[in-house]
């Protein structure tokens, strides 16, 4: 059976403290070969990087989530941190108009700083967008996001499923929310996104599939790939093979997938 890759997780969060062996065992049980550990705060980035340094099949991003208003983000600093060989992306960055309100120009400026860093260090972006699709796409156009590493970006799926169909050049990752009965819009996106632009994720410790009794600790549940396969009328193996291949082409060009 083809392996899966978790393209977006937060294994440095407190929920996983002292549980890494358990996490890795669950990954093996679910056939998950690799994971991308996503940075959300620069002060906590060293812990994210330490996970990637300690395990051959873990990788890291560097960036600041749009919720963290107090953090000042300097493009040059992001580029400096991204030079580490286990850092394969810039982000999680983007816009979130759902949780925050008022004058959010600081959020837009910080998003621009991340795009500029990705262009400079030639690494892809991991983008969080929620209730902000128009501004997200506008800023990406204005900042030349098509010139980031690989000329590509990963659109990290927003909770609630309200998303325009992404342009063909962008990747989009799906979490357990695609299994929810009320996720009609998201299911439609999963049917239509080109197969060579699909990825799967957990956003662990969040966004578990509806079919699981508990939140998964790591590694995309097979239920996510199974649901995407059902929606598209193709095999699980086709979804697993495509999403794993897409991950490596986007984040690790020149390398091949393997097992934990």
What would you note in describing this structure?
- The chain contains eight helices and eight strands.
- The protein has 260 residues and is an alpha/beta fold.
- The protein has one domain (4-251): TIM Barrel, CATH 3.20.20.
- An eight-stranded parallel sheet has the order 1-2-3-4-5-6-7-8.
- It is globular.
- It starts with a strand and ends in a 9-residue tail after the last helix.
Task: Provide a brief overview of the structure.
The chain has 260 residues and is an alpha/beta fold. The chain has a single domain (4-251), classed as Alpha-Beta Barrel (TIM Barrel), CATH 3.20.20.140.
Mean pLDDT rating: 87
Order of helices and strands, N to C?
Answer: EHEHEHEHEHEEHEHH
Counting helices, strands and paired strands, the structural category is alpha/beta
Strand order of the largest sheet: 1-2-3-4-5-6-7-8
In the CATH hierarchy, what is the architecture at level 2?
Answer: Alpha-Beta Barrel
In the CATH scheme, the class would be: Alpha Beta
Question: Sheet bearing the most strands, described?
Answer: 8 strands, parallel
């Amino acid at each position: 059976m083809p392996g899966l890759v978790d393209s977006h997780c937060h294994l440095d969060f407190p929920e996983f403290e002292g549980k890494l062996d358990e996490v890795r065992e669950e990954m093996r049980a679910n056939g998950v070969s690799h994971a991308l550990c996503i940075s959300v705060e620069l002060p906590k980035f060293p812990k994210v990087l330490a996970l990637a340094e300690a395990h051959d099949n873990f990788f890291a991003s560097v960036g600041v989530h749009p919720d963290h208003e107090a953090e000042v983000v300097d493009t040059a600093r992001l580029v400096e941190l991204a030079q580490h060989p286990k850092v394969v992306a810039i982000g999680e960055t983007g816009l979130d108009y759902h949780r925050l309100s008022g004058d959010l120009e600081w959020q837009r400026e910080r998003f621009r700083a991340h795009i500029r860093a990705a262009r400079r260090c030639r690494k892809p972006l991991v983008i969080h967008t929620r209730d902000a699709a128009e501004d997200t796409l506008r800023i990406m156009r204005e900042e030349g996001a098509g010139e980031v590493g690989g000329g590509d970006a990963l659109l990290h799926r927003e909770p609630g499923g309200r998303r325009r169909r992404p342009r063909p050049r962008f990747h989009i990752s799906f979490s357990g929310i695609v299994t929810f009965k009320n996720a009609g819009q998201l299911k439609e996106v999963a049917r239509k996104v080109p197969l060579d632009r699909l990825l799967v994720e957990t956003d662990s410790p969040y966004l578990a599939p509806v079919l699981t009794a508990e939140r998964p600790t790591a590694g995309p549940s097979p239920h996510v790939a199974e649901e995407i396969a059902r929606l598209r009328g193709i095999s699980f193996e086709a979804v697993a093979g495509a999403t794993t291949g897409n991950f490596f082409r986007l984040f690790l060009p020149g390398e091949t997938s393997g097992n934990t």
